[in-house]
Amino acid sequence: MQFRVIDASYRQITEVPEYMFSDILPDDRVLDIGANVGAFCIRAARLSPHVTAVEPVTVDLLEENVRLNHVNVQVIRGALGTGVPSEISWDGCRCISPTYTLGNLIDMAGGCDFLKCDCEGAEWLIQPSDLDGIRRIEMELHIPPISGPPNPALLDYIGDDYRFSIDRSPVYSPLGVMGILHATRT
């Protein structure tokens, strides 16, 4: 795998050991929210040809890395949110980005069987019903000060409809990161 990295203030993540994705099926529609420079989506595209990556900040490097690796990944310039353009910040780099609800992103991707989500707290904006039909979830969960408080309705939905664990390591920083959710629909 090849990754172009540049001298920049923000982290360019090329390894994703915290996520489990060996069970991506060849027909799975994979949605990678918070794709950064492509570490997850490029690996996923080797398992399924139906991968969509969503990224607001490092999208130019993401697109270049997709090309460098000759994989089929649809890239959406934007972020998970409420549908209203928002200021997005990543390691001091700021931009105004379009945002989309999870339901919108799933529609844009043509569906979702496997969701990877690392969106710095925007995961708590997910409407539980938008998870209907998603077989697998890999999601970084954030807590204040990075995000607002957790969404109890989302946690209840996952608890009722998924077999899950929350891995508390490795994480990049104990401040503001609850852990990595690994969930499989029951």
Total helix count?
4
The quaternary structure here is single chain
* Strand segment count: 11
Helix content: 10-25%
Order of helices and strands: EHEHEEEEEHEEHEE
Q: What is the CATH architecture term?
A: 3-Layer(aba) Sandwich
Secondary-structure blueprint:
Blueprint: E1 29-33, H1 39-44, E2 50-55, H2 59-68, E3 73-77, E4 79-80, E5 86-90, E6 93-97, E7 99-100, H3 102-109, E8 114-117, E9 136-142, H4 152-161, E10 162-167, E11 177-185
Parallel strand pairs: 1-2, 1-8, 2-3, 4-7, 8-9
Antiparallel strand pairs: 5-6, 9-11, 10-11
Can you put this structure into words, describing what you see?
There is one protein chain. This protein is of the alpha/beta class and 186 residues long. It has helices at 39-44, 59-68, 102-109, 152-161, and strands spanning 29-33, 50-55, 73-77, 79-80, 86-90, 93-97, 99-100, 114-117, 136-142, 162-167, 177-185. It has a single domain (29-185), classed as Vaccinia Virus protein VP39 (Rossmann fold, 3-Layer(aba) Sandwich), CATH 3.40.50.150. The strands form 3 sheets. The protein has a 7-stranded mixed sheet with strand order 3-2-1-8-9-11-10, sandwiched between helices.
